[in-house]
Design goal:
The protein has 8 helices and 17 strands. With 383 residues, the chain is an alpha+beta fold. The chain has 2 domains: 2-164, Rossmann fold (3-Layer(aba) Sandwich); 193-380, no CATH class. The chain has a 9-stranded antiparallel beta sheet. Strands 1, 2, 3, 4, 5 and 6 form a 6-stranded mixed beta sheet that branches. Helix 1 runs parallel beside helix 2 and helix 2 runs parallel beside helix 5 (145-199).
Length: 383
């Protein structure tokens, strides 16, 4: 017995240093490993302690869990004034309380039971939050210390192997969910593409001609068509994001409360029912004008969306580099607009602004009343 105990002590000097709670950021569950309980078999107190230390180190060695150190367990027991009995620290209820106080998520209960000439090592992992057993394993052998250690190894390997398989199953389900969301997004994109083809009576050849023209003159805003390959009535949300980037705000409309909900990130799967994409406003969910953000002078201020299709493109007063083929931009006057497009238009009057809507060519231009200058250029579908 002395020889086997010395071998065990040498192992512990190497392994048990691993048996402490891992650093911040470790997502593995935290487990409290309580003293091994002996039934119908006796070892000296130092041997019982060594066996429990070995078990703690063995659990840590598997890498499946973060392990609460025995020093922390003992300190908590002393604080609660729980006396260490001959074969067990405290009953199961006590162990649950101690584990929770140490912020553990799991608790390992271990028993060595002698029946006849054989000893069975039983390990049971409990979920402290649910107060239920997660998994259990056991192994049997002879009752010498080295035989019990061998049985303990088998039981722990079986237990942690099951835990690993469960973690792998969870990871598999998470991956399947990601794939499902990706498929849903692909299907939505295909539906939007179909809607795009049905909405506007432009042939594919016409669309390609318009796109080529726009891409050649990417800063030119074409009335009734669009800008930089984005065509009203044809292009989708995905076309916009691929052309101008995902550093934007997207809004969805909730019919129940008649309110637009804004999302400050376009990473990953997009929310359903997008009604607007904005490039002028963004930063950590705070509305703040980002006039000096990269390419903001040449990206449209916003895109109005209906059923996944671009219905309107708005050029704001800060997009200095964008202009119509006739040279109208955010510095043009109302007189210059009238000379370029004539005085046949629909008129809209607002408190500080007014708009001229040239429905036949798909253009709406707004002016500041006092300054008499362009404040926005909107590309719409021709009437």
């Amino acid at each position: 017995m002395k020889l086997s105990f010395n071998v065990l002590a040498i192992f512990l000097a190497v392994v048990v240093g691993c048996a402490s709670v891992a650093g911040a950021g470790d997502e593995r569950p935290i487990v409290a490993v309580f003293n091994v309980e002996l039934r119908n078999i006796r070892f000296s107190r130092s041997e019982r302690e060594a066996l429990s230390e070995y078990l703690t180190g063995k659990i840590a060695e598997t890498g499946v869990y973060q392990v609460v150190s025995r020093d922390q367990l003992k300190k908590q027991l002393r604080r609660k004034k729980v006396k260490i009995k001959k074969d067990v620290w405290c009953d199961q209820s006590c162990q649950f309380d101690i584990g929770k106080e140490l912020s553990a998520e799991k608790m390992l209960s271990t028993k060595v039971i002698k029946l006849g000439s054989m000893c069975t090592v039983s390990v049971t992992l409990y979920d402290l939050g649910k107060a239920t057993a997660d998994s259990a394993a056991s192994a049997s052998g002879k009752c010498k210390m080295e035989d019990i250690v061998a049985s303990m190894n088998k039981a722990v390997d079986e237990l942690t192997g099951a835990s690993k398989r469960a973690a792998e199953e969870l990871a598999k389900k998470a991956e399947e969910e990601r794939e499902r969301l990706a498929r849903g997004e692909a299907e939505r994109k295909a539906a939007e593409e179909k809607a795009r083809r049905e909405l506007r009576t432009l042939s594919q050849d016409d669309i390609e001609i318009i796109r080529k023209k726009q891409k050649t003159n990417r800063l030119t805003v074409y009335p009734g068509e669009g800008v930089n390959g984005i065509i009203v009535g044809v292009s989708t949300v995905y076309d916009v994001l691929e052309t101008y980037g995902r550093d934007c705000v997207v809004s969805t409309h909730n019919a129940e409360d008649d309110y637009n909900h804004r999302y400050t990130t376009c990473d990953g799967p997009l929310p359903q029912g997008i009604v607007r994409i904005e490039y002028e406003w963004l930063e950590n969910g705070i509305e703040e004008e980002q006039f000096d953000r990269k390419r903001s002078k040449e990206r449209p201020e916003q895109f109005e969306i209906s059923n996944g299709i671009v219905k309107e493109i708005q050029i704001g007063c800060y997009q200095d580099y964008l202009h119509t083929p006739e040279g109208i931009n955010n510095e043009s006057t109302k007189d210059q607009v009238l000379r370029a497009y004539g005085d046949t238009f629909r008129y809209k009057d607002y408190e500080t602004a007014e708009s001229c809507i040239y429905g036949g060519i798909g253009l709406q231009i707004s002016f500041h009343k006092k300054l008499n200058r362009v404040t926005s250029i909107n590309v719409i579908e021709p009437e």
